[in-house]
Amino acid sequence: MQSPSPDSSGGRPSHPTRTSGLRSFSAGPGVLPSGPSSVQTLPSEFAELLTPRGVRLLQTGRHPGVERVRADPAWRFLPLTDVIDPRRAASVLALLERAVGPHLKPMSQPIPAETILLQEQNYADLLPKAVRVSTAMLESRRSRSWKAAEEIGLPAMLQSPSYRAMAEVLAGRALRARWGIQALRYGPGDYTGPHNDAHPEDPDARDGYFDLHVSLADAGVKQQWIQYARAGHFSELSPLTAPGVLAAYRLPFWHSVGPLVPRPRLLSRARRWVLLGTFLYAPAKPARPSRRVEPHGPAPRPTSRGAGHGR
Ligand SMILES: [Fe+2]
Asked: Please, which residues have CB less than 5 A from ligand 1, an ion?
């Protein structure tokens, strides 16, 4: 599925211990050299973008920021600024800019004037989602942006086993085998207004789903913040200006991304790319039927509910 919005994510991390098989992922240089240059392709495994701390998170589930949110079953958004290698982040951004940047499509959804002109009651404000961003059309394999992205290996990296494994580590539960991917870019003044990414009409997503975002900010980004709700108030702020941020979202929840503020002398490098995967939760496994004879009637029937489903 495609995430309904830019910059969206995260669950009760009774953290899965599915680390076997992950030890083969390394933080080695892979295809990317360290630092912007004439890189031709992205690494085939997401794990190659990670710092040693990121690799440790992937392999063991241990990270101070992740452990903090595990104590809070209501957490929704978790940004990690020390798991993506900043020099590799710069390499990825430079390659995206060169190969995919020319094929991005502007997406502009302003606030409709009718929201004020046709409002009939005081304080009955209704704000639809407004957004301005550039997006790669990865949902269409015939699009130029898909072809450009495929040539540098972007879909492969976002569909790699280590990307999914990291999503499971941060989601704290099993995810379905297939997931949607997107790529978008914020330029000066680009933003996403308040929205919640709820999908009540989709049976697979109505109970929640999970997003994993790789945020890559270039040197010309002075500021860009995500604002999000906690305990019913739009009270939380987090910067998205580090060169590489890995952000987990347990959707739906209210959030918005403020306008990108450029450094005037670096206007041509005022851009932030977001590479994201949108995951549905795997259905809960039915409980094994008991062979034991229950003294007080039949055992409860196995149920597929309980862990919920998401997208
Ligand atoms: Fe969103």
From this structure: 5, 8, 197
Q: Which of 20, 33, 27 has the alpha carbon at shortest distance from 47?
A: 27
The CA 29 to ligand 1 mean position distance, Å, reads 32
Cα(197) to ligand 1 centroid in Å equals 6
At residue 43's C-alpha, the angle toward residues 48 and 85, to 5°, is: 35
Helix, strand, or coil here: 103? Answer: helix
Distance (Å, rounded) from C-alpha 302 to C-alpha 296?
17
3-state class (DSSP) for residue 309: coil
Neighbours of 299 (CB within 10 A): 13
Q: What phi, psi does 149 have (nearest 5°)?
A: -65, -40
User: Could you say which architecture CATH assigns to the domain 42-110+129-281?
Assistant: Sandwich (2.60)
Query: Which tokens sit at 210?
Result: 């999970």
Domain chopping of the chain, boundaries: 42-110+129-281
pTM over 0.90: no
Q: How far is the CA of 23 from the centre of ligand 1 (A)?
A: 32
**Residue pLDDT, tens place only, 287-299:** 666 554 433 333 3
Residue position matching structure tokens 């709700």:
229
Can you list the alpha helix ranges (DSSP code H) found in the chain?
Answer: 52-60, 64-70, 86-99, 114-117, 144-152, 154-158, 161-171
C-alpha 31 – ligand 1 centre gap (Å): 31
Using one digit for the tens of pLDDT, what is the confidence trace for 173-188?
999 999 999 999 999 9
